[in-house]
């Protein structure tokens, strides 16, 4: 599709943002706090939206927002996996990057009011879900039972571990974590996320539950199947599709998945809408 | 102190026996007994005769694999309502891994020889037992596949 340069939305132009804090989460994962470096207004966004982070002369990558939507800073949690993210990892406090956004349709936190909420995360998938968790906890009375079910590779790979422990201490929330493998010093669970859900079925009413799911696609596929088996309708299961994209505004077609553009129609989709193309091997 | 309930009643309360009619359950109950394990005790160890299986009533059990020269690896944890062990079903009836209590565990063990005998004696009981084991085994197989895929690992560049 061709776009006239003069009609390009403002979100096509990167804004400079300054890194105000870098936190090491895991060996290859770090979190940034950012502030606008152009003196402009801070970014407002909805849980589940993402930004395009731009490194001059290198490239641009879509990264979900992982902070508190009502918080002071814009927060991103990034895993260094390749050309651009490896270089982002080298940046320090005070460095600047270009940023376009926010983009996409996020988690249905308003639609989920009045329902039981299951937040199901795998690996780094907890990062895009964290703004939704903050929102739900800040408005706790508007939801039924709330559970966070999280799976990671090993205990050392649990993201936001201190925060998970803090949430676990609350009386109005269930937090269950599991890992794929552990040594014998780990006192928590070992096994896959669907099994965690299986064991917690009594805590939610499947028909009036809303599930927010983010993780590797294989993990999401098994999770959706388990939730379906428990009676949660596909239309109430939301998955975040984090496949590669370029323009982020539905122009270039790079992230087109069947009739949907992940960047502008997603990345969060109700499963019944994305099911026909969920198993597509490539974009 | 917990009052001792008859084994049949305990079996009835355990999800593994959900939906089983009284007749076959009472028939099987004769093979069962109460067991208590303290944290750190082994329910069974790799290579030992698999002469029973466990219905976990309370507590948590870690299934461990031991590889020489490496730290033992926990590959699954089992909680109340789950079962531990199916090696009693298949020759050579030897445990394929270790099962360690990570908390105080209360369980019912069912004697393998006794249960196999009852299944042979009355095939409808055998069918009821196998019908309950197969979803457990299928669930574990599917979980192991997911674990093998190492889905949370760092993405590898495609060749
Ligand atoms: C909507 C959306 C939100 C995202 N949110 C986050 C986030 O919050 N944190 C984060 O760390 N990453 C996130 N990602 C993934 C991130 O965009 C990619 O990891 C990044 O683009 C890789 O770029 P690179 O140049 O560093 O790696 P490349 O050199 O392009 O790729 C390195 C390796 O990573 C794989 N890869 C590239 N993109 C993806 C992807 N989207 N998913 C899985 N594997 C990929 C490639 O196949 C390759 O094997 C998100 C992606 C999308 C589409």
Distinctive features:
heterodimer; A: 283 residues; alpha/beta; Elongation Factor Tu (Ef-tu), domain 3; Rossmann fold; 2 domains; 7 helices; disordered N terminus; B: 159 residues; alpha+beta; Jelly Rolls; 4 helices; 25% strand; binds flavin-adenine dinucleotide
Description:
The complex is a heterodimer of chains A (283) and B (159). Chain A is an alpha/beta fold. Chain A is 21% helix and 31% strand. In chain A, helix 2 (126-138) links the parallel strand 7 (116-122) and strand 8. Chain B has 159 residues and is α+β, with helices and mostly antiparallel strands. Chain B contains four helices and eight strands, in the order H-H-E-E-E-E-E-E-E-E-H-H. Chain B has helices spanning 7-13, 22-29, 112-121, 123-149; strands spanning 32-37, 42-44, 52-58, 61-65, 73-78, 83-84, 98-101, 105-111. In chain B, strand 4 and strand 5 form a beta hairpin. In chain B, helix 1 packs across helix 2 (22-29). The interface between A and B is medium-sized, with 32 and 27 residues.
